TrEMBL record:
It catalyses: 1-(5-phospho-beta-D-ribosyl)-5-[(5-phospho-beta-D-ribosylamino)methylideneamino]imidazole-4-carboxamide = 5-[(5-phospho-1-deoxy-D-ribulos-1-ylimino)methylamino]-1-(5-phospho-beta-D-ribosyl)imidazole-4-carboxamide. InterPro entries: Aldolase_TIM, His_biosynth, HisA/PriA, HisA_bact_arch, Isoase_HisA-like, RibuloseP-bd_barrel. The gene is hisA. One of its GO terms (molecular function) is isomerase activity. It holds the Pfam family His_biosynth. It comes from Cognatilysobacter xinjiangensis. Its EC number is 5.3.1.16. It is an enzyme of class 5 (isomerase). The keyword Transmembrane does not apply. It is found in: Cytoplasm. This is 1-(5-phosphoribosyl)-5-[(5-phosphoribosylamino)methylideneamino] imidazole-4-carboxamide isomerase.
């Protein structure tokens, strides 16, 4: 895998930039800047991609930030992968129409893998990112849905095996227990996934705290890393993360 990409993230709830701890809606940190301002700052810092999440829709359905997505696309050169509340083909097409370069599908990818596999076949593997976000339960990686608030017991290994025959290209995996905690990404988990799916472009998400974590994700075989709380809190500069990603991709 030759390239490596950093994806600065903006999570939006009630129109504001927020971060949750371990996906818990009751543990929210709000930031002062408006989402479009943050996106513009990331673009100026050299980002090529943005990871944009509608947290309200992730839990309740109904993507609600299409206007923000359109604004980001019109005012910056960022490519955007975005999701939250994608429950139907109409939702998917609405995001494409608003300017999404890739649509992130999470809960539906767990509940209806055949539907999402059909979208990958119809719209192309570069237009869909499957999010298999996971939480360790009694020694096994399980896949919660509905903004990580519900669990149907589906295992990560089982569902990943189903997707390997679908043409899946882009896979995002968050270790929920590390999300928003600044404790470092779960490199062991990502090594395990890459052993199962070596041709998938895996995005590491959850816990990235410094530039060394970005290098560790690449060394584990990941094709990218999502950068959230550490950027918002100034733990490192995005310019340096982009430069480091470009250097380790060479």
């Amino acid at each position: 895998m030759s390239g490596f990409e950093v994806y600065p993230a903006i999570d939006v709830r009630d129109g504001r930039v927020v971060r949750l701890k371990q996906g818990d809606y009751a543990q929210e940190t709000r930031y002062a800047d408006q989402p479009l301002e943050v996106a513009s700052r990331y673009a100026a810092a050299g980002a090529r991609w943005l990871h944009l999440v509608d947290l309200d829709a992730a839990r309740d359905g109904g993507y609600s930030i299409a206007a923000l997505l359109s604004g980001i696309k019109s005012k910056t050169a960022l490519k955007v992968q975005t999701g939250g509340g994608v429950r139907s083909k109409d939702d998917l097409l609405r995001l494409f129409d608003a300017g999404a370069d890739r649509v992130v599908v999470g809960s539906l990818a767990v509940r209806e893998p055949s539907t999402v596999a059909g979208w990958i076949e119809r719209y192309g593997s570069e237009r869909i990112t499957v999010a298999l976000d996971t939480r360790e339960v009694e020694g096994e990686w399980r896949l919660p849905t509905a903004g990580w608030t519900r669990s149907d017991g589906t295992s990560l290994s089982f569902l990943l095996a189903l997707y390997l025959g679908t043409g899946l290209r882009h896979l995002l995996c968050t270790d929920i227990g590390r999300d928003g905690m600044l404790g470092g990404p779960n490199i062991a988990l990502y090594r395990e996934i890459m052993q199962l799916a070596p041709r998938v472009a895996l995005q590491a998400s959850g816990g990235v705290r410094d530039l060394a974590d970005i290098e560790a994700a690449r060394e584990a075989g990941c094709a990218g890393a999502v950068l959230g709380k550490a950027l918002l809190e100034g733990r490192f500069r995005l310019e340096d993360a982009v430069a480091r990603a470009d250097a380790i991709a060479c």
